[in-house]
């Protein structure tokens, strides 16, 4: 049984607040007779309403540490634990910092049994004597059971306080002359307890005596299972956790139901039995019904009901009553009692319904525990909590294996010990597997161990598979097929990929996958399907079982050697192969000489996935039953002639040698997906006229494709079409009757020979159109205006001169990328109108012929990102100040810009949509970038107020950025770092470390940094540093960097100084806690003048905005610093390349909040939805 491992989050609590739904039967006329005649239960208290004591421990051990702690007590304690007995030993449970004496005394009161180990020096310790006196008091007041063990002393010396005990008490009498009542109390207690039942273990084998003690304790505790259980490694933390979930205390009168769920062999029954033993004494009546599913199969619901009544009421004469009468007895007789009922191994919901136990009618404080392999049973039944039993952690798994294989917790070194990691890897933390394998290997030598491990690779142990196979046998046929597919082929693959293939094969994975997960046969982690090694081996064993040496008669093939064998056998004999999925990582010499002709004989084949292409011969035929065909590197120029094509759903032949997929028309009525990506020999697409159900076509990277059959325009269910990097394609004719009404993604990027865009008529629902790097594309068809659903349009790198006026109709457009359109001259006057109000991102970077931005840009009120890098504009329109959501403005290398207009001063609180639409946007920095300027402005324009205004508005509305942002502006003689704001300033080579700061201030928003720099030579050798220019946070072993965005790095020929302002929001300022050394670093071609920083508070932003609104800023006093920062500063004049030499360089460690992660996942889901269009 595995203990809770913090690294494994498999244990899930799912609270439920519904009552149990139970079937109630009508009351029986015999009920009153039974109530009069029934005898009382032996487990039932004489006073059901009495206040029970609740115990935290089963056993308290009282001992003299110096005498017995490291020998007898240590063995006794660990054997009690092994048997599931919760023992208290002071060095195991005491919490540091609390009073030991009071805690020990309370531990005694919280224990059901006390064991006193009288040793030679026991009586010399007043501490031990106080423990003993308290035990005697608990025996008298609460009836606590006490056992005495005489370790190395004569029992008569203890009873009479003679010998060494007499000497000890003489010393105590002398010491406590003023408090002799204490000594008398100790003597009375010792005499009483020494006369209790006990063991004289002197000169006897300790192992034998300890076993006697434990059996006596188990009998006293009435632990039903502990006497038979052994090696309960790591179970106690789990039991303790479940006790807390059950909330057992006298004040809790609610009825609670707990479900214990997990795969076969994981220890559900063991956990339930130990929990039952631990808590059963707290109830008026209790019963543990083992293997409920077996009881139902052998005797229906009434057999289980009778077991419950016999064990809770001791009613024996139940066979004469009908099912309805039994149901009435359960309802009426159990309603007034506080019950504990454990129902073990429930495998159908009906088994619970038919018991007729209504939790609303049970006695107050009752508890029901259900163990099952099927989570859905628990969820549908409406229980209060589900405990998912986890696999054992590595430490507990090793301990259990040592006990089973070596009969020791600490085995001596041997050659067998070297093999234990292999066994643990095989068992994968499954307790049953560890026990079975470990027990088999006990007393065997290393060569036998190795032989057994080799056998396990081929044939799993039958004891294991028999247990695991129960879950498989209970599945529906389709779910069995899904299980076998996953076991043989798809373990570790992405869930969406596996579901797509299974759906293609008609197996309904949307219900089948959840069923397997509910029954603990698979787990879903990180969107991948995982399966325990034992279950995978079970699946493969079931496939091979009837014909272990004849792969052609198996239903599935997954190894290359078996595939080769089956192909050779298929040419001459019978075959039953329905699915072949070869591991792409497996390379076997035989495959290179494999004759492919045998594949034509596999007539029942439905699923074929191959990654090999070196075959001999030709392929004349493929199974007409094929539903999914994927052959990476398909070696033939076309598909073989196979008829009918009636069942094929998906055809995937990437990197193939196909020239023409098929000749003429082929009627493939169910074909939905075709992937011929990177098939370099493909020269034309087939006629799709009779393939009306096609949803996805992928011809990415088909560099010799020159002709697209116009019938493609008739595919009204087509959702995804990619012709990316089809560099020979010059024309895309979608036909005169184009009706691609379902098409949402059209990717034509990299079609370098495409000289005009297609006619978009008939593509009314297109959302994503990518024409990036279509370097011959000079015009865009006017029909683009019909794409009213279009959200993304990229013409990056095209040679278009203008955009058609119809682009105004793109009312849904959010992203427009026209960057590197080097010939684009007049797009903007035609683009901007109220129809484009949805536009979020506009990229005109490196459009060298654009020299004017029209006033109408102000109507783009949703615009958040505007890139004008290297544009030739002399000015920007004043209407830009209306763009209140603008968070990114790139004016890098705009060398003709004569003035900067008034920028937006206030931010709209509803910005940040860009981050919700692009999953990688978290790395796309917000900011303002002006890295070159007209020299005429050098003495007349101060950029710093504009920069600080931009700074204030973003800080005030953090929805406009993620983690942080930065600003780069030119600096002139009148600006520099404003000392009235950046109150901590240093020389360029200075290093700062934050020693203390005002962490408790709720108004603290983050940190701002500012540095001034210039290029001092044209040839900046960036090889000195891994980064060109960055803000460094240096710790002992790592260096984190916040670097200048590559898209706005300053022109190295620039004459002048720039300022770089950086803001990092509070949640990401971990450097204040780590004490990292902070400084700016740059290559030798750059000179750092000064840098400064400020701890930013909410009131600072308010004061900053007020100051920026005033006309004369020079006369204003500095903004008060309320940070209470304590810093250390040093100037470092060193070779920067050597200072980072031994450090691990990392990008700045942004903390990802849950909100940001959800935002990213939602954006990623939208992108995946588009990229996966056409897949089931």
Automatic annotation (TrEMBL):
PROSITE patterns: TIR. It is an enzyme of class 3 (hydrolase). One of its GO terms (biological process) is defense response. Residues 55-221 form the TIR domain. Keywords: Hydrolase, Leucine-rich repeat, NAD, Repeat. Its EC number is 3.2.2.6. GO terms for molecular function: ADP binding; NAD+ nucleosidase activity, cyclic ADP-ribose generating. The keyword Hydrolase applies. InterPro entries: Apaf_helical, C-JID, Disease_R_plants, Leu-rich_rpt_3, LRR_dom_sf, NB-ARC, P-loop_NTPase, TIR_dom. Pfam families: C-JID, LRR_3, NB-ARC, TIR, WHD_ROQ1. It catalyses: NAD(+) + H2O = ADP-D-ribose + nicotinamide + H(+). This is ADP-ribosyl cyclase/cyclic ADP-ribose hydrolase. It comes from Arachis hypogaea. The lineage of its organism: Eukaryota, Viridiplantae, Streptophyta, Embryophyta, Tracheophyta.
